[in-house]
């Protein structure tokens, strides 16, 4: 699997908010699109998935223009996890997850016993088997986000695109989602493209990072080279300290923001 964005530009009313976006993602890779609110992170994901159209530039998947794929072809290779929101759907969790197989089924095809067994297996792997019979509109935000991730990976996609998957969640559920993204890469062999405004999350799990800022500023590279104290100051207008910790033989890095940059 190889996703490429070449010379992507997008804007409204003649004003570009994204200019000359270029990057590629290979197999078994986590890439983060990182930046403060309002710099076009979600817009960029929508342009990649075809919900919006670049003013200029192209997306390629495995060397072929994404625009040339049918919806079914594209969504067989790719899955999408939108921002966490309260569900109004009264589906059981296991039914919601089975819906993730729709790109591989005929329009009137009824899910099979094997489909439900696969959903149970995915829920078990993600540690949410206890949610199987619960209804989506009765879940907490963290539980619902885990169900949506399970729905995204049940079809064995080559790439999962996640739009701020940890936003609006408490600390525990943020960590749970971040750990799950690593599991998707390591255990399922699936690449992930994540949009976030949390630099410490990018630093914790990403192989590469595209940092976006105001006035079309951008940086692309290995995460440890992009997520630095100076770049956080430049792009987020925040002074911070990156601290390394060793806890029970494990190495961690965390970011302490301590004041607004002047």
Automatic annotation (TrEMBL):
Signal peptide positions on this chain: none
Keywords, ordered alphabetically: ATP-binding, Nucleotide-binding, Transport
ABC transporter domain residues: 3-239
InterPro entries: AAA+_ATPase (IPR003593), ABC_transporter-like_ATP-bd (IPR003439), ABC_transporter-like_CS (IPR017871), Metal_Ion_Import_ABC (IPR050153), P-loop_NTPase (IPR027417)
Superkingdom assignment: Bacteria
SUPFAM superfamilies linked: P-loop containing nucleoside triphosphate hydrolases (SSF52540)
Pfam families linked to this entry: ABC_tran
GO MF annotations in UniProt: ATP binding; ATP hydrolysis activity
Record-given protein name: Iron complex transport system ATP-binding protein
Organism field: [Clostridium] aminophilum
């Amino acid at each position: 699997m190889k996703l490429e964005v070449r010379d992507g530009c997008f804007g409204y009313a003649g004003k570009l908010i994204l200019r000359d976006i270029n990057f590629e993602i290979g197999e078994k890779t986590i890439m983060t699109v990182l930046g403060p609110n309002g710099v076009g992170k979600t817009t960029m994901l929508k342009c990649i998935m075809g919900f919006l159209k670049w003013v200029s530039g192209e997306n390629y998947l495995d060397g072929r223009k994404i625009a040339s794929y049918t919806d079914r072809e594209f969504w067989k290779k790719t899955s999408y996890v939108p921002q966490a929101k309260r569900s109004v759907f009264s589906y059981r969790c296991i039914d919601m997850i089975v819906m993730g197989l729709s790109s591989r089924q005929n329009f009137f095809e009824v899910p099979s016993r094997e489909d439900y067994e696969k959903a149970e297996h995915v829920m078990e792997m993600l540690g949410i088997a206890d949610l199987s019979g619960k209804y989506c509109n009765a879940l907490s935000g963290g539980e619902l986000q885990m169900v949506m991730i399970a729905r995204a990976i049940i079809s064995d996609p080559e790439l999962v695109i996640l739009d701020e998957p940890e936003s609006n969640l408490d600390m525990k559920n943020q960590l749970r989602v971040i750990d799950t993204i690593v599991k998707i890469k390591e255990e399922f062999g699936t690449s992930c493209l994540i949009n976030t405004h949390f630099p410490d999350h990018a630093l914790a799990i990403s192989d590469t990072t595209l940092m976006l800022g105001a006035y079309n500023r951008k940086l692309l590279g290995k995460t440890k080279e992009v997520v630095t104290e100076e770049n956080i100051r430049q792009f987020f207008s925040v002074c911070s300290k990156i601290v390394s910790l060793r806890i029970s033989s494990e190495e961690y890095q965390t970011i302490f923001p301590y004041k607004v940059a002047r």
